[in-house]
Amino acid sequence: MYIPFSPDKRLGQHFLTDTQLAERIVRAIGAPSDARVVEIGAGCGALSLPLQCRYPELIALEIDHRAVAFLKECAPDLNVIHCDVLKVDWAAMAKAAGGCLYVAGNLPYHITSPILFGLLAHRAYLTRAVLMMQREVADRLVARPGTKTYGGPSVTTQLLANPRVLFKVSPAAFWPRPSVDSAVVALDFNTRPEMEVDTDMLQRVVRTAFNQRRKMLRNSLGALASEYQLKIPGRWARSRPEELEPAGFVDIVQYFQGASVE
Predict the structure, then answer these.
(1) Residue 131: helix, strand or coil by DSSP?
(2) For the chain, first and last CA: distance in Å?
(3) Is the confidence at residue 1, as pLDDT, over 80?
(4) According to a count of CB atoms within 10 Å of the terminal CB, is the N or C end of the chain lower?
């Protein structure tokens, strides 16, 4: 894979160089050929070009002006947009595409979480995302209650999408090599029923609980419950957040929402 410029550390660039891995990611998307696919972080096109072969309407997002210029020169038919993915209007993009989007990408490690939560917040406009990320983050997304890796990201992601780790990736697949392993994760957004809770409130409850993960919920959520002039019921009071299934947090939010603040 030809890379015409040095990686920018500020952008967390680790360019994918394994062509077989790129093809494997393309196959994992599983969308019809006329689907509108959006790539996050096109880089030098290692994933963009095989994506475009299968999905001619591909939209490639890239923040590095050097990569944008390179791609426009070597792949003039590729629709490259010079932008910051954290500022993308997913609703407008889906509307312009005429339906829900598929997303693919090799995510920069330092902004993986904001990208993920941005996609979850706009899940109504997405069908599936196939994303490469740090393996440690991938493990957190699919972690089960009672494990060390189970936390706020596990709960929120499993409630708003169906996350699956598809396969692990060696540092040898990138240049320069990262110091950690990676993994490819699929997030399906249309397999979860819409929850009858306020998602902002859900995230507040989850974040508050796991900020003090070793404390019982009657203590970690005590101040929040007081805002609603409530007490944490006995069925949750002595539990710690790491013991609760994701659906349990929905029950807590519904309990708060069912009460009115005087």
Answers:
(1) strand
(2) 63
(3) no
(4) C
